[in-house]
Write a structure and sequence with these properties.
Number of domains: 2
Helix content: 55-70%
Low-confidence stretches: none
């Protein structure tokens, strides 16, 4: 007979962290089917059908994960969001382990993990498929490896760090900010002796070699990602003062977690025990400064909070122990979880949409705007989950109104990658061909072989189409009251009698933003 699992193992500190991690995964499994596909999810699935070493707006890892998900699990909402849910659970686990490595006992580990489990920004990011859920996980894993290097004085682990950092860079460039922050932290603390280790430099070489194919892709296409970042910063992202950035970043972690990560910064810089981990304080400060200089979006800073949350939990646990305030242990955990329950509907699509609108008004919640443009009834993270299948169905009505001869010649156009991704994904059951678009990587994929004798296109300015066609008519209108304002009351144009081919005009239609 199989031996029973020993009770001490079931109640160990590690077991408690695993239970919290599994609970986090379960929460996402229950919530991630709400509303619909997010705009970027449709785009990432399209990228997965055009595998390459890079894309205009991200490195290749997320597209590869989209392919892996489709082959292993399918393309349902639950399937697409399966790995993000796992990332959420692992993030909770790793933060608790970091607190343990900093000397924290069970209470410190649980406090750190609970703070991550209920933080609005982590709940939101880990509830849909994007590079951000993987990015947070790579940051946490890299930080855990660094603390093991420092505690064990085991520089060979820099090889493992280089592997994680390299894969992380192939997922999102922000991994480079963590690397730079760690270098600044090493230089600023006695841990600078690690800079003399050959293993650190070999780890850096591993990271560079993993990232090299993407660098070569960028060179081949003329560094499109730099153009994209410049355009997005200049024309798309909403300018913010440093104060606004810090407040928005902190609110993403949660108001009730504010004392924890502030205590963590104090622990790193002021406490005699925390000085051993001061590197992580410098990492946070350096990354904050870098993001302020580069005018990043507030949620970019979210992974950097993992380290002061862990350090703060250790500091608070020590404070409670020295004063024998044992009542504060369960009270703080219960308070964190209760706050998380109250704010969860704002970041997890668990309420019917009309109920959410009432909840939002009653709670007085308002998402900080990160991009220019008019807001709708819903915050953008929810608004971008509505209207996509209706868009494909409306385009299909126009397409199916054409004669069989015109359908053979017809090209479907879209104004941005979300619209194009929606037509590609939902259009199959309506008999639509894949869409073309001038937006980001769709522009690199090109207009296809058809010259565009008949064009059905979503959105845009009719003046632009009259410059290309003699016959332009509005054939339909797309409406969805919950979508972003620029995605509703959206015209669908039918263009005939071209003045030039799509191939001729394509080079000057590039739209990287």
């Amino acid at each position: 007979m199989q031996k029973a699992v020993p009770r001490p193992l079931l109640h160990s500190d590690l077991a408690i962290l695993l239970y919290l991690a599994l609970l986090t995964v379960l929460i996402h499994f229950l919530a991630n089917g709400g509303y619909g596909y997010f705009r970027d999810e449709l785009y990432y699935m399209a990228c997965g059908r055009h595998l390459a070493w890079g894309y205009v707006d991200q490195p290749p890892f997320v597209a590869l994960m989209a392919v892996l998900t489709r082959h292993l699990l399918g393309s349902s909402l639950f399937a697409l969001r399966f790995f993000p849910a796992l990332c959420g659970g692992l993030l909770v686990l790793l933060t608790g382990l970091v607190a343990r490595e900093m000397g924290g006992g069970r209470y410190a580990q649980v406090l750190a993990s609970a703070a991550v489990m209920v933080a609005p920004v982590y709940l939101a990011i880990d509830n849909y498929f994007s590079m951000n859920c993987f990015d947070q996980l790579f940051w946490a894993l890299a930080g855990y490896i660094v603390i093991r290097i420092l505690k064990q004085d085991n520089p060979k682990l820099w090889l493992l760090f280089g592997l994680v950092a390299g894969v992380g860079l192939m997922n999102k460039y922000s991994m480079g900010f963590l690397g730079l922050g760690i270098v600044i932290g090493l230089v600023s603390t006695p841990a600078r002796r690690q800079l003399l280790s050959k293993w650190l430099w070999l780890g850096g070489a591993i990271s560079f070699l993993i990232f090299l194919p993407h660098i070569l892709w960028e060179i081949h296409y003329g560094f499109p990602s730099l153009e994209f970042i410049h355009n997005a910063t200049t024309f798309k992202n909403l300018p913010q003062t440093p104060f606004q950035f810090i407040v928005a970043s902190a609110m993403g972690i949660g108001f009730l977690s504010l004392p924890i990560w502030l205590a963590g910064l104090g622990y790193f810089f002021l406490d005699k025990e925390g000085k051993h981990f001061r590197l992580f304080g410098w990492v946070f400060v350096a990354i904050l400064a870098l993001f302020l200089v580069t005018k990043a979006k507030p949620y970019y800073l979210a992974p950097a909070f993992l380290f002061p949350l862990a350090g703060g939990a250790v500091a608070i646990a020590d404070f409670v122990r020295r004063r024998n305030w044992n009542w504060l242990r369960p009270a703080s955990i219960v308070l964190l979880l209760a706050g998380g329950v109250m704010t969860a509907p704002y970041v997890l699509p668990v309420l019917p949409v009309e109920a959410f609108i009432k909840y939002q008004a009653r709670m007085g919640l308002k998402a900080p705007r990160e991009e220019r443009g008019k807001a709708g009834k819903l915050p953008q993270q929810y608004a971008d989950m509505f209207g996509w299948e209706n868009m494909a169905a409306t385009v299909a009505k126009v397409y199916n109104s054409l004669s069989p001869e015109e359908q053979q010649k017809c090209v479907i156009g879209a104004g941005n990658y979300g619209e194009a991704g929606a037509i590609d994904f939902f259009g199959k059951k309506y008999g639509l061909p894949n869409a073309i678009s001038t937006h980001n990587s769709y522009w690199i994929w090109g207009p296809g072989d058809k010259p565009g004798e008949v064009l059905v296109v979503v959105g845009g300015n009719p003046k632009d189409y009259y410059a290309m066609y003699d016959d332009v008519e509005q054939a339909a209108t797309i409406n969805c009251e919950y979508a972003m304002p620029f995605e509703t009351d959206l015209p669908v144009y039918l263009c005939r009698r071209p003045k030039m081919t799509l191939q001729q005009v394509w080079p000057r239609l590039k739209n990287f933003i």
